[in-house]
Design goal:
Helices cover about 20% and strands about 40% of the residues. It is built from two helices and seven strands, in the order βαββββαββ. The longest helix has 11 residues.
Length: about 100
């Protein structure tokens, strides 16, 4: 599930929609340290074979099915024109209790 905050929607509109970009890939950045192990990136893009497709507020998001399963919910927020993506649960598989 994808959620977009008011600030996140404003950022998407001013940064991307004005350029005609409405489709985005949400990627898990390969962690290089403990501080960035949950970091996600939002980039214009298209789907890959293992992606789920989520639509929210007129935007289309492509997310790896394993990533969205770990995260449960990805929230798109912003600080000015910088996207900030957070997850409901940790996306670090080492922290999951199965």
């Amino acid at each position: 599930m994808i959620k977009i905050t008011k600030e996140g929607k404003k950022m998407l509109e001013t940064t991307f929609a004005s350029k005609g970009e409405k489709k985005f890939k949400i990627q898990h950045i390969k962690p290089t340290c403990n501080a960035c192990r949950d970091e996600l990136r939002l980039v214009p893009g298209s789907s890959e074979p293992d992606d789920i497709i989520a639509m929210e507020s007129g935007y289309v998001f492509f997310v790896d099915k394993d990533l969205i399963q770990l995260a449960e919910t990805i929230t798109i927020d912003a600080a000015g024109d910088i996207p900030i993506l957070t997850t409901r649960k940790s996306i670090d598989p080492r922290e999951r209790n199965f």
